[in-house]
């Protein structure tokens, strides 16, 4: 907030009258609303044989990155437009025409530096030579780097843009080595592309959701074509040989990832809609306390919890410095309702637009509780509200009186803390008057996981969620486009 204030003051001093043109009032609290960031436009080219292909951008898991789609012209040229607030590492640009599909790995798509920058155009050819034309070579490089990240146990987005570029260089060198596993993968990709250009099947052979790990080809497509993937003269009914060569080649790439040790991305996701279940696996009424109006949206608010370990003096570790308390409170909304917006439009860290999962992404202080003297991490309280900007608590909060609590611990070691909640669920991490049934571990209140209370549940950390509706947690929530904070591995911690 202090930084924003200084920026506004400097602009007012240096451009008299400009503020009236670009700023508009937000609330009667003295805040201002800045104009939206200008778009980022990504331009590229596909093999001319794929002229007319539809191009789009997806994350490494195959989910849409957002932005526009584009049909390449008769020269194979295309352009994709993205909101200026969007940032991503390790995204794929995919070009498809009929059964043919090629793709390229984009090391980094940065957000606009500020709302005052003009529309920015990025040419793929200037990012890396292999991206000058999307085809067999760019597709092979993407496959190798994605698989290498998977073998190293990290998402490709956990790598820096420079690390991805280096891995792409390594992949190209390996592909150029005669008889190598990388060369075999390139041959297989070329063979598949040729088969796809001649097939009557309407879909491509690639399983975009599995490019990082598992079988990269759709079994039903390959079974109908029976192409010779490895050139041994025998048609292949499955992708086993390609997957084996891909694993072997990817294992030769040297990747490294080092997370920033004292900060972490935290993603809050809250579901709002019909047919939701609470922590007791009972039907949830999200509008028990909050009014459901067409114009309402979801907001986040919270602050540092009084149970957080606070440093007694400077230089201590494993605790929150006193001068970090107020900035952290402000980042979380400082318990002001309907001030910090959440998003369900595919931007600001949101994974899928309009899916009823609202997202708030924030960067918070971090330390590993297991190595701290207190044994506790940063502890915060928070709550979701449903209303209009600047509206008060009445008829907007999940429930009156109590709050949710969360200890910032990276339980799945992916460099991100993701907390998925259901709006109005009083049987989850609500601190007091908790509705979790005794049969499920409830005792009317919620205890910190690092300070368990006999007979009481401890739903106070990052946790797995139920994705198939059987009320059993089965997977970690997807952070969507949010990537970890990383640093060069040769930097001192």
Q: How would you characterize the overall build of this protein?
A:
The chain is elongated. A hairpin with a 2-residue loop joins β7 and β8. By secondary structure, it is α+β, with helices and mostly antiparallel strands. It folds into 2 domains: 211 residues, Sandwich (Immunoglobulin-like); 232 residues, Immunoglobulin-like (Sandwich). The N terminus is likely disordered. The protein contains 9 helices and 18 strands. The chain has a 4-stranded antiparallel beta sheet. A 4-stranded antiparallel beta sheet has the order 13-12-15-16. Strands 6-3-9 form a 3-stranded mixed beta sheet.
Task: List its traits.
4-stranded antiparallel β-sheet, 9 helices, Immunoglobulin-like, alpha+beta, 493 residues, disordered N terminus
Q: What's the CATH class of the largest domain, please?
A: Mainly Beta
Anisotropy-based shape: elongated
Helix content: 10-25%
Return residue spans where pLDDT drops below 50 for at least 5 consecutive residues.
1-31
Query: Considering the protein shown, what is the CATH homologous superfamily of the largest domain?
Result: Immunoglobulins
SS strand fraction: 15-25%
Map the helices and strands.
Layout: H1 2-14, H2 19-22, E1 24-25, E2 32-33, E3 40-45, E4 54-58, E5 70-71, E6 77-82, E7 88-97, E8 100-109, E9 120-123, H3 124-127, H4 136-151, H5 161-175, H6 181-198, H7 219-225, H8 240-250, E10 258-259, E11 263-271, E12 297-304, H9 322-331, E13 340-341, E14 357-365, E15 379-387, E16 404-407, E17 416-422, E18 486-487
Helix pairs in contact: 4-5, 4-6, 4-8, 5-6, 6-8
């Amino acid at each position: 907030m202090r930084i924003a204030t200084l920026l506004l003051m400097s602009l007012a001093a240096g451009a008299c009258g400009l503020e009236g043109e670009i700023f508009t009032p937000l609330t009667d609290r003295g805040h201002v609303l800045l104009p939206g960031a200008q778009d980022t436009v990504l331009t590229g080219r596909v093999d001319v044989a794929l002229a007319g292909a539809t191009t789009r951008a997806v994350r490494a898991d195959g989910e849409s990155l957002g932005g526009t789609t584009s049909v390449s012209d008769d020269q194979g040229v295309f352009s994709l437009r993205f909101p200026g607030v969007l940032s991503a590492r390790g995204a794929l640009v995919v070009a498809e025409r009929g059964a043919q599909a090629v793709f390229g790995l984009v090391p980094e798509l940065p957000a606009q530096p500020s709302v005052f920058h003009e529309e920015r155009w990025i040419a793929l050819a200037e990012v890396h030579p292999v991206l000058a034309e999307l085809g067999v070579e760019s597709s092979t490089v993407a496959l190798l780097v994605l698989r290498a990240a998977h073998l190293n146990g990290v998402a490709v987005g956990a790598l820096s843009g420079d690390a991805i570029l280096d891995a792409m260089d390594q992949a190209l060198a390996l592909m150029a080595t005669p008889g190598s596993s990388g060369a075999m993968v390139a041959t297989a990709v070329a063979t598949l592309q040729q088969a796809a250009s001649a097939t009557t099947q309407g879909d491509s052979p690639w399983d975009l959701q599995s490019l990082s790990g598992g079988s990269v080809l759709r079994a039903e497509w390959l079974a109908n074509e029976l192409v010779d993937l490895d050139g041994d003269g025998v048609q292949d009914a499955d992708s086993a040989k390609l997957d084996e060569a891909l694993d072997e080649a990817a294992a030769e790439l040297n990747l490294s990832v080092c997370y920033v040790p004292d900060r972490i991305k935290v993603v809050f996701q809250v579901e709002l809609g019909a047919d939701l279940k609470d922590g007791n696996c009972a039907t949830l009424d999200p509008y028990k306390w909050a009014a459901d109006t067409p114009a309402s949206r979801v907001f986040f608010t919270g602050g540092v919890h009084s149970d957080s370990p606070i440093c007694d003096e400077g230089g201590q570790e494993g605790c929150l410095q006193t001068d970090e308390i107020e900035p952290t409170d402000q980042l979380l909304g400082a318990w002001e309702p309907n001030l910090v917006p959440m998003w369900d439009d595919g931007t600001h860290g949101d994974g899928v637009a309009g899916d009823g999962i609202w997202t708030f992404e924030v960067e918070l202080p971090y330390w590993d509780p297991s190595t701290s003297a207190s044994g506790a991490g940063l502890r915060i309280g928070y709550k979701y509200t449903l209303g209009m900007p600047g509206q008060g608590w009445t008829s907007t909060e999940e429930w009156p009186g109590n709050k949710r609590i969360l200890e910032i611990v990276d339980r799945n070691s992916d460099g991100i803390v993701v907390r998925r909640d259901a709006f109005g669920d009083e049987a989850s991490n609500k601190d007091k008057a908790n509705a979790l049934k005794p049969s499920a571990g409830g005792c009317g209140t919620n205890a910190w996981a690092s300070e368990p209370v006999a007979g009481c549940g401890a739903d106070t950390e990052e946790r797995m969620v139920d994705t198939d509706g059987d009320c059993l947690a089965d997977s970690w929530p997807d952070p969507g486009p949010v990537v970890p904070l990383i640093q060069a591995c040769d930097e001192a911690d």
